[in-house]
Design brief:
single chain, mainly alpha, Multidrug-efflux Transporter Regulator, Chain: A, Domain 2, Tetracycline Repressor, domain 2, 3 domains, 12 helices, about 70% helix, elongated
């Protein structure tokens, strides 16, 4: 949270919030309330955002009975979102953000979020540290920008061409599946990076991983529902369960192929999976 220009002294903030000055200072020391702006050397000044944050803290403490450690995690997430929104409204000060993202993506893919350092990033991008920090406040925000890039790439590539006028359900299914397989490496890279990042910073990245999975399942579920409405798929099936099954198959098969555990060609694997999904395993 970044305070606005000075509005009130701490005594007024205490009076309006109903908290003693000592509690307000405790919240600041704990990092759940932003420090005051200091236009003068001796007296800090506070604004309406400090008052709103105190009211939120009090509500969380008394209404939900959350411990202070959990409240701190919530306020950190709110502050991070505010900062991202502020940066989204601010033009790229160096004009190098996209370039830095492009140079950093291979690093995060190869080494993982935790192992990549700022020194690695500036070397890969051919920039100085000052340019990096003018473009991104920290490594975390750069990593989130990389995740956003992958999501945009995947969404832009998932469109399927060449099925206009096609009526055969098997052909339609196969062409959709092939389009999804083309973007699967992007998806797999993103999920692997998020899983690794969630291990080092679960408070920040686990919700993003969960949301990415929910979005992916929802996208598959929508396509399956459309297939059911068109009569291509059995209507009594649960599209959400099917979406989770297909994602699980894709993830496992892709991981086995990447590790060299399959001797068969990718085309053969794709044909086998498609055959089982469309026709089952029983010999009828």
């Amino acid at each position: 949270m970044r305070p606005n220009p000075a509005d009130m002294p701490i005594s007024e903030l205490a009076a309006r919030s109903g908290l003693p000055v000592s509690t307000i200072k405790f919240y600041i020391r704990e990092g759940i309330l932003a420090p005051p702006a200091k236009p003068a050397r001796t007296r800090g000044r506070y604004d309406e955002r400090h008052l709103d944050r105190i009211r939120l803290i009090q509500e969380l403490r008394h209404e939900t009975d959350l411990p202070l450690s959990k409240i701190k995690g919530i306020t950190r997430m709110l502050d991070a979102r505010e900062e991202r929104e502020r940066r989204a409204r601010t033009p790229d000060p160096t004009g190098r953000q996209e370039e830095i993202v492009e140079a950093s993506l291979p690093l995060f893919r190869q080494k993982g979020y935790e192992s990549v350092t700022i020194a690695d990033i500036v070397d890969a991008a051919g920039i100085g540290r000052s340019t990096f920090y003018k473009s991104f406040p920290n490594k975390k925000e750069l990593f989130l920008a990389c995740i956003g890039r992958i999501l945009r790439q995947e969404q832009s590539q998932v469109a399927v061409n060449g099925i206009e006028g096609e009526t055969d359900p098997v052909t339609i299914f196969e062409r959709h599946a092939q389009a999804l397989m083309r973007v699967d490496p992007l998806w797999r890279n993103m999920i692997h990076m998020l899983r690794a990042a969630a291990g080092s910073d679960p408070g920040e990245f686990q919700p993003r991983l969960d949301e990415a999975m929910r979005l992916k399942v929802a996208a598959y579920e929508k396509r399956l529902q459309a297939g059911m409405l068109q009569g291509l798929l059995r209507r009594e099936l649960d599209p959400k369960v099917l979406a989770v099954m297909i994602l699980g198959i894709q993830d496992t098969c892709s991981d086995f192929m990447a590790r060299g555990h399959f001797r068969s060609a990718p085309k053969h694997i794709f044909e086998q999976v498609t055959s089982v999904l469309l026709h089952g395993m029983l010999n009828r």
